[in-house]
Design brief:
about 50% strand, 2 domains, 3 helices, 8-stranded antiparallel β-sheet, Methylamine Dehydrogenase, Chain H, mainly beta
């Protein structure tokens, strides 16, 4: 069923279409790539839906909660709205708290009781944390709690006993930058588990680490891109922990001494911004029903990039499946962008969300596969949105006591990056 003119104009004007309006029900996959689109905000910051490693969508029972970062006259604000999947109606917009700048957006998870947990605020500052006062309800929150020092880029998951686990980059004035791991047991304060990753060089470093649980909700998997020494080293790596972050191991089970470095991690790919080497970025990580980690990363060199799905080959290496050629074959005017997100739903289907670029425009590609990337299907979930710049897409994935059933939700920013980290912008934030 194609959208009629009235419905199409409603989408472009920032209205919403119910799934029934779009021609399909919640329980059934659509026959065509027609999507329910909702404009959540007209005040999105320059990085309203960044970053990939920070999960922003949680579905519990018949409610989906979505969070992002607005910019308003008096600063940056973490927002959240809730979709009632039965009625197709969205709640009002609630404010969770402030952020330091456009790097301070939220990450979201949920515990076994249905309480939402959100971490947000910093760019080289302490984190701020709140939990919902009622299960499966984003309308009221606990008092704000601060923890840590000089932290940025959180990734948050909830453990089997409802302990929260978080990793984040720690900046240092004179020492190499690091990744710290923190935890919060139920009813207790946040406490640091340890420094789990470290750059080998002083000055600016970036990590892009992401966390995912195995099917037993006990093995914790981590993917990371270690960027150091001005980008001369860019390593995509993997490790896992069976004791909630105290000990980390490579794919073959070997213990890796902490803090782990680009030299000691289980390396999937390596490169750097020097002649003859590709620049690498890491997306997120997901885990199959049989415990197999699935990592998405990009390798780019002029003129384009390759998006790669990596899985253990069952021996001593990694199997890789490129996605860029398939995207180019269907949409030859578009190039796939760096990094992406991966999510595996309850039915075992893998979804990869990627940004595309074409002659000054950006778009969003949703790639699905039932065989981990060997064969794929393509959709353009943002095709009905009029803005030329559609980017920083974020994909619903499991981080706690919830699941992804069917097609995962997507949010993205439509608008401009701005000139600096403190620009007050009026970008659109869309849900698909």
């Amino acid at each position: 069923m194609m959208m009629n003119r009235r419905n199409a104009m409603a989408v472009l004007a920032g209205g919403s279409l119910s799934l029934a309006d779009a021609g399909f029900g919640l329980s059934a996959a659509p026959k065509r790539a027609v999507h329910s689109t909702m404009r959540l905000s007209q005040h999105g910051s320059g990085r309203a839906t960044a970053y990939a490693e920070a999960n922003k969508i949680v579905t519990v029972d018949e409610k989906t909660h979505v969070t992002w970062l607005d910019s308003v006259q008096d600063g940056f604000r973490v927002r959240i709205r809730t979709l009632d999947r039965r009625s197709g109606q969205w709640s009002q917009t609630w404010t969770v708290g402030p952020a330091h700048d456009n790097h301070g957006g939220p990450t979201l998870t949920v515990d076994s009781r249905g309480h939402l947990h959100v971490v947000y605020f910093p760019h080289h500052n302490p984190f701020r944390y709140r939990s919902s006062l009622k299960p499966n309800d984003a309308s009221a929150w606990s008092d704000e709690v601060q923890f840590g020092r000089k932290l940025t880029y959180p990734t948050l998951v909830c453990g089997p006993d409802d302990t929260l686990y978080l990793t984040a980059r720690r900046s240092h004035a004179r020492m190499p930058w690091t990744v710290e791991m923190w935890k919060k047991p139920v009813g207790k304060a946040w406490e640091m588990v340890g420094t789990i990753l470290r750059s080998r060089a002083g000055g600016y470093s970036h990590f892009q680490e992401a966390l995912a649980w195995g099917p037993d909700h006990k093995r914790l998997h981590l993917s990371v891109r270690i960027y150091e020494n001005g980008g001369s080293v860019e390593v995509v790596g993997y490790m896992f922990s069976d004791d909630f972050g105290k000990t980390w191991r490579g794919r073959n089970g070997r213990v890796i001494e902490q803090p782990v470095s680009a030299e000691t991690i289980d390396v999937i790919a390596s490169g750097g911004r020097v002649e003859g080497k590709s620049s690498h970025k890491c997306g997120t990580i997901s885990v199959t029903a049989d415990g197999q980690p699935v990592i998405v990363y990009s390798a780019s060199s002029s003129p384009g990039a390759e998006m790669i799905v990596a899985t253990p080959d069952g021996k001593s290496a990694w199997s890789r499946h490129g996605l860029a050629s398939a995207v180019a074959g269907q949409w030859p005017d578009w190039r796939i962008g760096p990094a992406a997100e991966v999510s595996i739903n309850r039915q075992g289907t893998m979804y990869v969300l990627a940004t595309m670029a074409s002659e000054g425009k950006n778009g969003v590609a949703l790639i699905s596969s039932k065989d981990l990337g060997r064969t794929i299907k393509l959709e353009r979930p943002a095709a009905g949105v009029k803005q030329a710049k559609k980017w920083l897409a974020n994909l619903e994935r499991v981080t706690g006591h919830h699941r992804v059933d069917g097609r995962p939700g997507v949010i993205f920013t439509a608008g401009t990056r701005g000139k600096g980290n403190t620009d007050i912008l009026n970008n659109d934030v869309f849900w698909v």
